[in-house]
Design a protein that fits this description.
The chain has 42 residues and is mainly α. It contains two helices and no strands.
Length: 42
């Protein structure tokens, strides 16, 4: 994803809230990895 597209996606016009933690990965995560990360945040 190009940086300008990322900035557009995260602009205040499209997102009404706060980002507590952000992560960038060099690959798509599978569903088990996403669940594990979600549950770590609980």
């Amino acid at each position: 994803m190009k940086m300008d597209m990322l900035v557009k996606c995260l602009s205040v016009d499209n997102f009404k809230g706060l980002i507590d933690e952000a992560r960038v990965y060099n690959r798509a995560l599978n569903s088990d990895e996403i669940k594990r990360l979600y549950n770590m945040g609980r």
